[in-house]
């Protein structure tokens, strides 16, 4: 590929900034530029990490970045399946309970969903069943609202924000609780068994037939309406990617499940790519500051450089730096200024600033009203907009290169792409990806730049709504349809 030493970046006009201000900002522009050869290193690194994760056991001395976790989901939705299924999603302190009616006819469906909040006092405790009982109460409330009959046992799929090591489609052991949850007896518990017991205690006519990671659910939610979908990506506060692979490629998995190769040809694999390390991506002093201030130092570099959990903090640290140099007219000495405090420049503010035009009134509101900086100048607002642009642009480039790495691996192994016929679809969900207006075009352009034209012509990228909750229902449908919910798996 030509011009690999040329940085992929956009030069922004700072029409109201002084020469000194423009000169000072060149430092940040240089720090956040990414050349095509560095993106190629990331792309190739992701491909190699995928292979290593499939072929080397986790017990080896050197851990690879991608965990490559089997999902136990096999087969493909066609869009013609019919039935009513339940789905449960726990994402942070949010609980979503959903009824999905699959109507077939090429992917038609109807959704009935309610959202509940987990109270703060239920985020910690000694007995995980306390939280499960509350979730069961929410599900019971949902069923009453919707008017479910107790004469039918409904199949349910669940999608959780907890780290779970699946041992089969309907069994998974909790590895870690995240998002502020702490239950002393949680680690090592079978999460499906916990929920099933909780529902039985509440006398709910529900059978949990499957669980799936959020990226697996994103893939399947899109695949029901677009059966050619082979990759699912979540990119929001965190990030992850799942894709279809040949079971014959999964050497580590087959060493423990030798019977699968004769019964199943393809399975969805959860890459857990949030932990792609900085050895594949150029980092700078602001990335190091974010890492040092995090509660998981030294890991999840890809997540810290690209996701909604951290991008706003990256931008804030740069603003603090330039305020200290006097490049910005407002300072951080005023006790009212919220920019003095970590994570008080929310990533959603970047969406507003990046899309702002003309007088940059939206940026002014973010700074003066939301961050309480005091009065700002138009030059200040131009600087803030540029910083948001650069931080967001780099994140999109890294995401695009990582997707290219997955595509490169799949194409090299003949997975999901027949160059003589049809290609496949890539599904992406997440507030950051959907709401950061420049993200999607930048990701697509990066992907197109890094892969051969004949491959790019065979790909499509779709943004998914209701991804995880609908995908969980699709997993339940697939489990029921194929009658694979038994002790074998």
TrEMBL record:
<dbReference type="GO" id="GO:0005536">
    <property type="term" value="F:D-glucose binding"/>
</dbReference>
<keyword id="KW-0418">Kinase</keyword>
<keyword id="KW-0808">Transferase</keyword>
<feature type="domain" description="Hexokinase C-terminal">
    <location>
        <begin position="230"/>
        <end position="478"/>
    </location>
</feature>
<keyword id="KW-0324">Glycolysis</keyword>
<dbReference type="GO" id="GO:0008865">
    <property type="term" value="F:fructokinase activity"/>
</dbReference>
<dbReference type="GO" id="GO:0005829">
    <property type="term" value="C:cytosol"/>
</dbReference>
<dbReference type="GO" id="GO:0005739">
    <property type="term" value="C:mitochondrion"/>
</dbReference>
<dbReference type="Pfam" id="PF03727">
    <property type="entry name" value="Hexokinase_2"/>
</dbReference>
<dbReference type="GO" id="GO:0004340">
    <property type="term" value="F:glucokinase activity"/>
</dbReference>
<dbReference type="Pfam" id="PF00349">
    <property type="entry name" value="Hexokinase_1"/>
</dbReference>
<protein>
    <recommendedName>
        <fullName>Phosphotransferase</fullName>
        <ecNumber>2.7.1.-</ecNumber>
    </recommendedName>
</protein>
<dbReference type="GO" id="GO:0006006">
    <property type="term" value="P:glucose metabolic process"/>
</dbReference>
<keyword id="KW-0547">Nucleotide-binding</keyword>
<dbReference type="GO" id="GO:0001678">
    <property type="term" value="P:intracellular glucose homeostasis"/>
</dbReference>
<dbReference type="InterPro" id="IPR022672">
    <property type="entry name" value="Hexokinase_N"/>
</dbReference>
<dbReference type="InterPro" id="IPR001312">
    <property type="entry name" value="Hexokinase"/>
</dbReference>
<comment type="similarity">
    <text>Belongs to the hexokinase family.</text>
</comment>
<dbReference type="InterPro" id="IPR022673">
    <property type="entry name" value="Hexokinase_C"/>
</dbReference>
<dbReference type="GO" id="GO:0006096">
    <property type="term" value="P:glycolytic process"/>
</dbReference>
<dbReference type="GO" id="GO:0005524">
    <property type="term" value="F:ATP binding"/>
</dbReference>
<keyword id="KW-0067">ATP-binding</keyword>
<feature type="domain" description="Hexokinase N-terminal">
    <location>
        <begin position="25"/>
        <end position="224"/>
    </location>
</feature>
<dbReference type="InterPro" id="IPR043129">
    <property type="entry name" value="ATPase_NBD"/>
</dbReference>
